[in-house]
## 1
Amino acid sequence: MTKKQKTKTKALDVAFYFIKKGLDEKKPITNKKLQKLVYYAQAWSLVLNNEKLFKEKIEAWVHGPAIPSLYEKFMQFGSKPIVLELSELEHINFSKKQEELLSSIWQVYGKYPADYLEALTHSELPWQEARGGMPDSQPSNNIIKIETIKEFYARKLRENSKRGD
């Protein structure tokens, strides 16, 4: 992303997209799952679209990557699914490439439960590096570096392309 480009969408816009998808398919999602979906949307936007989807920092929390503002917004639901009226969901007009990306993220990651996505992020370098070897159960607000995210998933894409996946 060049310095002149501004990221107009917010993590909350991306969150509303996934919450709506879950409600539309009668599969409401939890805050923990939402955090992972928004994280993967940012990661793959960096690789596939060469741009940040949103500007908020992502932290390496106990249960995986998290965006604090999203957690606070939906913490009232605890570990229960987030259920909102459609009228409560603000709608942003994503660009065509953003909409395609979000749809792909939902198709690839949306089918998995939150605990699976947590384990997946724990197995990946960006979260591990930000945690710096601390125990999984130790709270942390360490930032997951955007550069690490982009490099890791770009490498993953290259490796999968070579194997023909």
Note: The longest helix spans residues 31-48.
## 2
Amino acid sequence: MKLINSAILISILFISLFFISCDENDTVTPSEEHFEAAGYIIKNENDSTVFKVLKGQVDNTISETFTLLLADGSQNFTIEFLDEDGNNIGNPEHEDHEESEEEEEHEEHELEFQMEDDSIINIEIDEWELNITPLKIGGTTFRIQILHEGHPDFTSPFVPIEIK
């Protein structure tokens, strides 16, 4: 009788280990993928890079500040992200979910543009595109974040922006 109980216990143990080992949920590795960027470029409507930040440093060969002219009025820009080597990795992909309409409208990644003084420009963000309207001459700093389900996957340092 003891031998039968031991055999049943060992069988249950092996079956449990089998089911646990076949589970694709890894408790050590996060289940969500995070977009890993080391910098970004801002491109104008002509697809020319007008500003670049990599590993927290402004690329002075392109421009020391992100500069806009008040007289030019509203302008459109796109943002693309860079890896550690400065290679363009584009933008985070939006995954399609087969869930409720309310959840489908929620984007996994979104762009946030934070200004220290938001009185000098008005900015509208549509996914990875910026519509920037200069409001007055002056300078401040800004930073960019990629938000993923409420927390930042990427945060740039504050860098200069100037309106002339």
Note: The chain has one domain: 35-93+102-163.
